[in-house]
Amino acid sequence: MLDSNNTRMILKQYYLGCLAHASYLLGDEGSGTAVIVDPQRDVHQYVVDAEKFGLKIRHVFLTHFHADFLAGHLELRDACGATIHLGSRAEAEYAFLPMEDGDVLGFPGMRLQVLHTPGHTYESISILVFDLAKSKTEPYAVLTGDTLFIGDVGRPDLRASLGWTANELGGYLYDSLHTKLLPLPDSVLVYPAHGAGSLCGKKLSSDTVSSLGDQRRFNYALKPMTKEEFIRLVTADQPDAPPYFTYDAVLNTRERATLDKRLEEALRPVELEEVLALGDRGAQILDVREPAEYAKGHLAGSINIGLGGQYATWAGTVLDRSKPIVIISEPGREYEAAVRLGRIGFDHVMGFLSGGMAALAERPDLVWPTERTGVLIAAEELESAEPPFVLDVRNPMEWEGKHIQSSVNIPLNHLQERIAEVPCNRRIAVHCAGGYRSSIAVSILHQHGITNLIEIAGGLAAWEAAGLPVVSGVHHTA
Predict the structure, then answer these.
(1) Number of domains forming the structure of the chain
(2) Long-range own/partner contacts, residues 55-58 (CB < 8 A, 24 or more apart)
(3) Looking at the predicted structure, is the pLDDT value of residue 86 above 50?
(4) How many C-beta neighbours within 10 Å does residue 190 have?
(5) What b/e sequence results for 263-283 when a residue is b if at least 16 CB atoms lie within 10 Å of its CB, and e otherwise?
(6) How many of the other CB atoms lie within 10 Å of CB of 182?
(7) Tens of pLDDT along 238-278?
């Protein structure tokens, strides 16, 4: 957004819905300087906007080493010559300017002040933003990274594999909130790095900005409580973190190839015979079409993660980052598929199937359909003498809220490790909430030789819309 009252300072938020990620351009017209905070890896939009505003990108900040995406700090360094700024507790392979608590970056129209706010991670910082045309003493906004969200705070349990306990970081988080952020005026605008849908917290709002006063009143984690109570609260019931989170957090500390260089390798058309040969050698064949199209027919052995859903998060959850990837897409969507993988550091794409599924027109022996059925027919089959095993791949809280009477819950993010719990001697009926996750699940089951199955089209939403019964209660496993 552009501050309409005074254009000497610019604050623009960029929100990437598929990763629930917010990044920022802070601009000072007086010095012609732009500062980018927590950029996504494809940085073209920041460069274009800086030029439009008559600014040069001279600085890039990471509020911490993000776990859920690969940041674009190296891309901005290489493209614009920007100086990288990290909190002084950070350690990285590339050159950066360490920012101590209280350090200031001053410009004619704005001032940025760094606050050390450890808790989500040890090196976390927040950035106070002063619009000097409004006030030289009262901050206008604070960019809180993953320390404070709208409606939540950053989870403190993501660094366990790197030597930090959730209780240690939870204690730091309590202190950061109570000594650095809560003392700020109610009028200060809070701009976090994530919103609803992010796995960096559990109750994030869909709002992308709020006032600190509103957060003080409505954010459950900011209510008066002891440090011990706070730690218990923020460490409980956190969603499972995808396996790529630690990988990305570490990769954000490293010198590595930029996205443009990786895309040169990824955007290579590959003929069908080579795709098949790569698959035989262990490459993952990733079909990014929508579930309905995948169900009509797909290359046997491919895995479906559609571009229409939380594609990058699920790719990072179910794909093996040590094995090459070949993309199958509708012609023209290969770039999007590769870029969105690149955003989470999955750079091992070897190309895409030239011509998409049309390349298989002469090889029907390689094309598998998925049997999909409507909910009324599925309900009839469940009443038969030999009903199918109903596999619900939603998360446990969804299942406990409501589910089909006979269903067994194996969450999609655990399906591969628990595949032995799916019976091979029964027909399988697979569903999720709406059909996106169930298509991924079907492709995983096919890879493991479980092919006597149906996918319930529309998932539980369609089941309920048809007036079919659901129950709630104790969690069942296979």
Answers:
(1) 3
(2) 55/10, 55/27, 55/28, 55/29, 56/32, 56/80, 57/82, 58/33, 58/34, 58/82, 58/83
(3) yes
(4) 25
(5) beebbbebebebbbebbeeeb
(6) 13
(7) 778 888 999 999 999 999 999 999 999 899 999 999 999 99
Give how far Cα 314 sits from Cα of 93, 180, 311, 411, Å.
29, 35, 5, 12
Q: What percentage of the chain carries pLDDT values higher than 90? A: 88
Strand intervals (E) in 234-338: 269-270, 284-287, 298-299, 303-304, 325-328
Same domain? For 160 and 280 the reply is: no
Q: Say what the pLDDT of residue 6 is.
A: 46
368 C-beta neighbours (distance < 10 Å), count: 16
Cα–Cα distance, 458 to 380 (Å, whole number): 16
What tens digit of pLDDT does each residue of 90-113 get? Answer: 999 999 999 999 999 999 999 999
Asked which of 248, 282, 316 is the last residue of a domain, the reply is 248
CA neighbor of 454 nearest in space, from 370, 387, 392: 370
Domain span at residue 183 reads 9-248
The amino acid that residue 226 corresponds to is T
Contact 388, 371 (CB under 8 A): no
Strand order in the sheet with 97-99: 9-16, 21-28, 33-37, 56-61, 83-87, 97-99
Q: How confident is the model at residue 4 (pLDDT cuts 50, 70, 90)?
A: very low
Amino acid at 7: T
Domain harbouring 414, CATH code? 3.40.250.10
How high is the pLDDT of residue 197? 67
Could you report how far apart the first and last alpha carbons of the chain are, in Å?
50
pLDDT (tens digit, 9 = 90+) per residue, 420-455? 999 999 999 999 999 999 999 999 999 999 999 999
The pTM score is 0.92
Half-sphere exposure for 378 (CA within 13 Å, toward CB):
30
Same domain, 224 and 302: no
Q: Using CA atoms, how far apart are residues 329 and 244, in angstroms rounded to an integer?
A: 23
In terms of Cβ atoms closer than 10 Å to its own Cβ (0-12, 13-18, 19+), residue 255 is exposed
